Amino acid sequence: MKSIIFNIVFLFVLPYLMYGIAKKVKAFFARRKGPSIWQYGYDLAKLLRKEEVLSDFSCLRNGGVLTLSGVLAAAMFIPQISGSSILNLGYYDYILFIYMLSFSRFFTIITAMESGCSFEGMGSSRELIFSVTGEIALMMTVASLAFYGKAENFNGIFNAISNGGTEGLIIAIIASFILFVLMLLEGSRMPIDDPETHLELTMIHEAMVLDQSGPQLAFMSFSGMVKVYLFASFIISLILATCKTSSYYWLFFILGIIIISVIIGLIESLQARLRMVHVQQYILFSAAISLILLLSVIIFKV
Amino acid sequence: MSIWQQPIQQVLILSLILAAGGIISAFFNSRVRGRIFAVIAGAVGAYSTLLMVLGIRGQEFFEYSLGSMNFSLDLVGRFFIATVGLGIFFSALYNASLSGNSRAFEQKNRFYYGSLGIFGASMLQVLLVKIDGTLNSALLFMSAWEIMSLFSFLLIICSDEVKGVSGKGLTYLLVMHISAAFLMTGFIAISGNPFGGDLYGFWALLIGFGIKLGLFPSHFYMADSYETAPGASAGLISGVMINMAIYGILRTFLVCVKYAGIFGYILLIIGIVSALWGVLSALAENRAKRVLAGSSMENMGLIIIGVGVFTIAEYVYNVHTAALMALAGVLIHSLNHSLFKAQLFYSVDLIRNHTGSTDLDKLGGLGKTFNNLKRSMLLGTLGISSLPPLNGFIGKFLLYASFFELLFNVESFKVALICVFCLVILGTVGALSLFVFVKLYSMIFLGAEREKFPQMRKAVENRLNSITLSAMSLLSLTIGVAPILFAYNRGKLTNVLYELTLNAFLIIGFSLLVWGFRHLLVKLNGSRKSPTWGCGYSNITSRMEYTADSFSLPLMRLLDKIFPRKENNEPVTELYPADITRTYEVRNPIKESIDFICSKFNDLLGKLQFLQSGLMQNYLWISIIFLVLAILYAIFSSSTAGGVK
Question: For B305-316, what is each residue's pLDDT tens digit?
């Protein structure tokens, strides 16, 4: 019970802290001081206090709500700061995780299409196309990991990795690489999407929330941050499983979160956004690596 | 509980009542007719659902003979009977909600109910026949099957579309008969020794049922016939009737233990190709009913994948948990598909009745007019894109689970590769179907109105069709939230379904929580509406909206080789050009090649037309030449035969 509360509290703190750290790193590279690492939290709080402005065309109204609830439901299955997940379901919770993310994507897009703006249509179309490719990589990674541990849930995967020795380490590293690319895709970070661009034609995720405001926008932005946090937790759990840390797990976890945020910040400071045609290839590249993961798992196990 | 000991007799009687009800209701006037039939169909639907729910608890098997006709009923049969009962009921209810004053409408309506009753009765008969490999059972099965095909053809042609109905209907009838010919050949080939069977017999059965399902190369007729069919029958045919072919495959393939290995893999391959092709062709289409037809093909592909993994797990590797989950997935998904597919067809048909179009580039922004329809169709869309907490997710999840079970329990390179590949395909198909239905839903309901439809009134939805569609979506939601109803004491399957129930409550709970939070915030800070922001435009109109084409074109451009498009791009030559229309139309290479073969055959027949001169002398000459040739053939063949001896 204590660990569940611990997880839930940090679920509402760490996501925007990650974004804050990444922003700080970017500011450092631009020789600026940059905003405080809590700035994204203040922004969300500000948005929640604002009046909600909907488009004249909108008729469903609750898209942001359902987007956030899908992501929160997905957050129940991934082990987080306390080392265990909030809800322990016995069978195939990784499939539930993937489908909860799909659920939230569905409503993000429905909300975007509601406003009838062509930019949002464009953003939705792009998001869907990239998500199809991302789904290939994610499903192959998860299936390979599950096959490696013959694991029926996330806990089984991490147990198998921690008992796997060198094999486990190799698999954890390959899988974290793929998951990192997928994290950038789901969170719409560079080099797939530039969260700070001001040109609508190059946007993906930002184009979809152009017409959102107030609480709805807060829900949308927060669910993006939580998605990044969840993928980061997945990666950290994989890596920490190979080290067999039990005491001070939470300290290592926070260290991992900071490292991943710094890497995100580094990528964003050192690299430009990919051209739209190359984004597809970039994600397909991660799918190709997931094929390597699958083959190495098969070599280890069969 | 003695009344439940004779279910076969009861279903037979119900099917007779259904057939009689269709004919009797034709004698009443249009208002009463629909209601009478809906009541009868409602009784059948309620009974069949009860039969299924009671059957889940036991593993009872019933047999009954009437003269030389043998009937049997088990759990698989009960599931499909429930599918038929519910399908007929909702179709009748939806059709009863339509109204019209013209004479043509009256005639078609009468015709529709007459056909619907017999159609439903024949489907129930198909499900009751005991298929034991004897020729007798095959004949009984095929006679019911033929009645079903014939009446589905009649249901398709009682459409109010004037152009092309008869042609497309006849294509449908022809294809159904080719399928029936294959089936009959197959049944004859396997008759006598069902457990050994003839390999060619199973191939023939696979082709016959595959044509009915619209699996990969034989899907060319589906989009056309579903598009011309009236909505009430299109939903019934694409949702319910093609399940009969799934039933047939389950029944005939489960006895071919000897060839289980080969057919398991073949079914997997066909299923994968059909699912991918179906979802991509749905994505390429821009007319709502054709999108739904493509999605039917996709779902049938998924079900066939399920049958394939069932066969492999049960008969090749003996992994019973995987087989159980696959079979449960197949049954639940076919029930679900019959619900949400029919619902979406009825919704689209309702829209077509009031706007006169199913073209996604003309519709748009209808969410404000069709208030109830918007909500119920959102649930249907969630269901068909297999997202939690709706019913489509349950069947899909069980398929995933069966692959994982197989993956974990069999240590072999081949199985590992196949399972992971199939899991990836399932995921991709899921993501693509999300794409398809986001497009369908948002192009119909969201955004600005693209065209004003002058004949559309505010009160387009009457109470009956709102109730029908809401009931269908609520039934879908019930299955999605409480799949635990489908398993009783079946070990791991029960646990998995229990987990899905928890998961559904989880997502609903979170939605309510966040919804309450937003409600509170809106109450504190207020909410208002303002025009959409358009980057420089003060007011966005429908002309600036993203169209259905522009939504899917980036992906379809990548697939140009597989789904070629006919583009009509008029070049702009003047400074102030007049109206330019740009159209994209998806070509169907398979249909084109079949058309090509048919036209060549037609040409050949045309060249032989000189024989039909109309002169008696010429005909006499032809018969004399034929007789002489026949006699010569007889003489020479007998002499050579003798020589060999």
Answer: 999 999 999 888
Mind listing the pLDDT tens digit for each residue in B511-554? 999 999 999 999 998 888 888 877 777 777 777 788 888 888 88
Element holding A52 (H helix, E strand): strand A52-55
Neighbours of B59 (CB within 10 A): 10
Per-state percent for chain B, helix, strand, coil, to nearest 5: 75, 5, 20
Kindly report, residue by residue over B85-117, the tens digit of the pLDDT: 999 999 988 988 887 777 777 888 888 888 899
Contact A225, A261 (CB under 8 A): no
- Gap from B588 CA to chain A (nearest CA, Å): 23
Domain ranges of chain B: 1-130, 131-509, 589-640
Q: Which of B503, B522, B541, B556 should we substitute to test contact with A (largest number of A Cβ atoms within 10 Å)?
A: B503
- Give the containing element (helix H, strand E) for B62: strand B62-66
Q: Using a cut of 0.95, tell me whether the model's pTM lies above it.
A: no
**Smallest Cα distance from A20 to chain B, Å:** 24
| Contact (CB<8Å) A121/B507 | no
Residue in the block written with tokens 């990548």: B558
DSSP calls for A73-122: HHHTTS--TTSS-SS--SS-HHHHHHHHHHHHHHHHHHHHHHT--HHHHH
* Check whether domain B1-130 has CATH 3.40.50, yes or no: no
Best of A44, A47, A59 to disrupt the B interface (most B CBs within 10 Å) is A59
Which tens digit of pLDDT belongs to each residue from A44-82?
Answer: 999 999 998 888 888 888 889 999 999 999 999 998 888
